[in-house]
Amino acid sequence: MVKILKKELLVPNIHFMVLESEVIHLNAKAGEFVVVRPDEYGERIPLNLVDWDEHSASVVFMEVGTSTRKLGCLKSGDTIADLAGPLGRPTEIVTGKKILAIGGCYGIGALYPVLRAFKESGNTVITAIEARSAFLLYWQERLKKYSDEFFEITRDGTRGFTGHIDKFLNWYLLKNSVDMVYAQGCAYLTYLVSQTTKPVGIKTVVGLNPIMIDATGMCGVCRVIINGETKFACVDGPEFDGHSVDWANLLTRRHIYINEERRSLSFYECEKYG
Amino acid sequence: MPEKIIPKKTPMREQPPKERIKNFNEVPYGYSPEEAIAEAKRCLQCKKAPCVAGCPVEIDIPGFIKFIAEGDFKSAIRLIKEKNVLPAVCGRVCPQETQCEQVCTLAKKYEPVAIGRLERFAADYEAAQGEAPIPELPPSTGKKVAVIGSGPGGLTVAGDLIRLGHSVTIFEALHKPGGVLVYGIPEFRLPKAIVYREVDYLIRCGVKLVLNFIVGKTATIDQLLKEFDAVYIGTGAGLPWFMNIPGENLNGVYSANEYLTRSNLMKAYLFPEYDTPIARGKRVAVVGGGNVAMDCARTALRLGAEEVHIVYRRSKQEMPARIEEIHHAEEEGVIFDWLTLPVRYIGDERGWVKEMECIKMQLGEPDASGRRKPIPIEGSNYITPVDTVICAIGQGPNPLIPQTTPDLKAGKWGNIEVDKATMKTSKPKCWAGGDVVRGGATVILAMGDARIAARSIDEYLRTGVW
Ligand SMILES: Cc1cc2nc3c(=O)[nH]c(=O)nc-3n(C[C@H](O)[C@H](O)[C@H](O)COP(=O)(O)OP(=O)(O)OC[C@H]3O[C@@H](n4cnc5c(N)ncnc54)[C@H](O)[C@@H]3O)c2cc1C
Ligand SMILES: Cc1cc2nc3c(=O)[nH]c(=O)nc-3n(C[C@H](O)[C@H](O)[C@H](O)COP(=O)(O)OP(=O)(O)OC[C@H]3O[C@@H](n4cnc5c(N)ncnc54)[C@H](O)[C@@H]3O)c2cc1C
Ligand code: SF4
Ligand code: SF4
Ligand code: FES
């Protein structure tokens, strides 16, 4: 049993959760993730580590299906069944570079430790966070602390730059040059970022989120195709060069269980709400 | 001594095939006390019992069988447990036909004594009596041992060392202990309650169990060595192999590990009560010919498949699976496509596998493994419809520890190298055994390695000499 030390709703559907852990901090690095299991019936799901200290590990998650819905219903002081990590390869932290870092939905949270590591290693960091509407953006103050420049992007134009990430990238890269683009968030966002930077040849690192189970390299469900070669995202990634990813395969594999996931969610909701 | 030789084993009652493919309950029921006594009386009580040498942990087989024949089941289990801490497991899953039973004197002319079934009987008898009593433990030596992995190997090392007065902590990456016994081997062959009972016994003896702790990531071996005097690595062979043929990343193509982990560890067969889903295919192909392939095929049937094929590139004689498992699979209606090799998988417009292309094989000269090498027959390709494919062609050692422990010597396939007499690795204070050393092997061999390592660890802890 793992205690929830703190939980808060950041914006509709996106939660911040601090979990008790005496061990995650021992080796935790930016870009790594943890696996959590909400209860005895639950799935093992991967979530990025957004922060840690000697007694805790924190995550930011978006409610999409049963597991994240279950987590969403919990409050400070409750417990979850399991927490394991850190897992995956950490972000490769370069030095002395100009980096454009992009986050959307849960990726805004996932961006935080990476920005911090980039900044602390002497890089110039330009941060851009994006959402459908202004009320879905969060953690601006936290992120600004580690950013040299800071942009907000909304699709409906309620704050900052209006449009989707591709429009922003085309606009920004027209008059600025960067050494590298880094992106965290849903597969569509990381895909769009990679597609936009590919023609202009800017190195782009993205966090991928295929389905996982054990997250230790044991089951192979997380396989992704990178430069034509099969890799296990949990041990070889989850970050890869966005221009080498077989996106069609990733997006198809993420939907393997779409019917079952719907069934699971309606089963859970009927049980919970009658 | 039996008055008259009884040529055949006392049969064991089983769930009928038609019924059992609709549930995940254990298939054989086990012997009743009367059946066990009858079977035990078949044993000739040979003076130089060859069966003992056939058992990798050298159980006193005639000894425990004699106790069963006399109806003294308590003494039987006590004697078995001197050598084997997981008898309920081994009695069920050991490949007896190539070990103890193969060399049984009776086997020369008749069926061997059903040693495995008797071992299982004695263990189940003990369990039915309630919690096993804790043995008296010697005073603490003050030495601390870290055991990495809670498979049969790790559990054996822990059991041996705690009884020698050392403090033992098991670190397990997953959220449940037991290794392959829990995530791999299905409930209908090895009920998980049996494994948890053994783990519980170790915990009652004082072994500490830390779950969700991935050595190499959560803490490295070097970090553990700051706190522990010795480390045993029993991390198993969990890395699934694929064939690297076109279409292997289509939806509906599984590794055996994924398929079995979903069903066993995550209980996907009880979806949606449990949250983890699994594809319930109608036409399933399982590629491979070992125990793992049999387990996948039989799981697929229980998940509602109409047709399950085992696709194996050699013939029945070369199949590495246990005879009992092949027999059970046949009874349940699994179809065997011998001398057949998949060459590619074909997907539909939604990215799901819909067909597989296979080529027929013929057997040539024996290869390095002594088995006849399969050779493709040119032009014999054919395409057959499938909606689920499970790749059960084998697995390699878990890579996390070799990757994060640079001074630990590993072979070409990632197997940790050890000195066979002590199971010492190239890294001081580190021992290893079981599948991480051997590649995919057996439960009892992992336990045998663990025994050797435990003895060596104890000696090191007492003398301080590496
Ligand atoms: C390495 C890694 C790190 C991750 N980090 C985070 C994180 O920090 N925070 C976080 O919220 N999520 C993160 N994810 C994604 C997260 O694991 C999934 O959202 C989660 O498993 C969904 O479980 P569920 O049971 O709630 O939904 P499911 O029932 O599994 O999914 C419901 C439906 O939503 C879709 N879906 C699932 N996840 C997403 C998504 N992220 N974006 C769009 N659609 C989705 C599925 O395809 C499915 O159709 C990460 C994934 C990986 C592999
Ligand atoms: C489906 C299947 C069926 C089988 N059937 C039979 C059979 O009928 N008879 C038979 O004798 N054998 C059978 N085997 C083989 C047998 O199960 C193995 O040989 C045996 O389990 C090996 O034991 P082990 O202790 O070495 O490792 P494992 O049982 O593999 O256990 C290793 C444990 O270590 C954990 N681990 C791995 N890495 C780390 C890490 N970095 N940190 C912490 N923990 C870690 C794993 O999660 C796992 O729990 C079968 C195997 C499979 C897969
Ligand atoms: S442990 Fe295995 S090999 Fe040894 S006697 Fe028992 S069944 Fe036979
Ligand atoms: S070899 Fe067979 S008959 Fe002889 S003691 Fe062993 S089990 Fe009994
Ligand atoms: S999640 Fe199982 S191998 Fe990556």
Write up this protein.
The complex is a heterodimer of chains A (about 270) and B (about 475). Chain A is of the alpha/beta class and about 270 residues long. Chain A has helices at about 65-70, 105-120, 140-145, 165-175, 185-195, 235, 245-255, 260-274, and strands at about 1-10, 15-20, 35, 45-50, 50-55, 55-60, 80, 80-85, 100-105, 125-130, 150-155, 160, 180-185, 205, 225, 230, 240. In chain A, the strands form four sheets. Chain A has a seven-stranded mixed beta sheet with strand order 12-11-10-9-13-14-17, with helices on both faces. In chain A, strands 5-6-2-1-7 form a five-stranded antiparallel beta sheet. A three-stranded antiparallel beta sheet of chain A has the order 4-3-8, with no helix packed on it. The longest helix of chain A has 16 residues, at about 260-275. The two termini of chain A are about 25 Å apart. By secondary structure, chain B is an alpha/beta fold. Chain B has 17 helices and 16 strands. In chain B, the strands form four sheets. In chain B, strands 3-2-1-4-16 form a five-stranded parallel beta sheet. In chain B, strand 7, helix 13 (about 290-300) and strand 8 form a beta-alpha-beta unit. Chain B is globular. The termini of chain B are far apart. The model of chain B has no long low-confidence stretch (mean pLDDT about 95). The interface of A and B includes residues 83, 252, 256, 263 and 268 of A. One flavin-adenine dinucleotide binds near residues 67, 110, 186, 210 and 238 of chain A.
Please render the helix and strand layout as text.
The complex is a heterodimer of chains A (274) and B (466).
Chain A: E1 2-11, E2 14-20, E3 33-37, E4 45-48, E5 51-53, E6 56-62, H1 66-72, E7 79-80, E8 82-87, E9 98-104, H2 106-120, E10 124-131, H3 140-144, E11 149-154, E12 161-162, H4 165-175, E13 180-184, H5 187-197, E14 203-207, E15 223-226, E16 229-232, H6 233-236, E17 239-241, H7 247-253, H8 258-273
Parallel strand pairs in A: 9-10, 9-13, 10-11, 11-12, 13-14
Antiparallel strand pairs in A: 1-2, 1-7, 2-6, 3-4, 3-8, 5-6, 14-17, 15-16
Helix pairs in contact in A: 4-5
Chain B: H1 17-20, H2 33-40, H3 50-54, H4 61-69, H5 73-83, H6 87-93, H7 115-128, E1 144-148, H8 152-162, E2 167-171, H9 180-183, H10 192-204, E3 208-210, H11 221-225, E4 230-233, E5 239-240, E6 253-255, H12 256-265, E7 283-287, H13 291-302, E8 307-311, H14 323-332, E9 335-337, E10 340-347, E11 353-366, E12 372-376, E13 382-385, E14 388-391, E15 395-396, H15 400-404, E16 430-432, H16 435-438, H17 443-463
Parallel strand pairs in B: 1-2, 1-4, 2-3, 4-16, 6-14, 7-8, 7-14, 8-9
Antiparallel strand pairs in B: 5-15, 10-11, 11-12, 11-13
Helix pairs in contact in B: 2-4, 2-7, 4-5, 4-7, 5-7, 6-7, 8-17, 12-13, 13-14
Bound molecules: flavin-adenine dinucleotide (FAD) (2 copies), iron/sulfur cluster (2 copies) and FE2/S2 (inorganic) cluster.
One iron/sulfur cluster (SF4) is lined by residues 55, 57, 59, 61, 84, 90-91, 94, 96, 99-100, 115-116, 119, 444 of chain B.
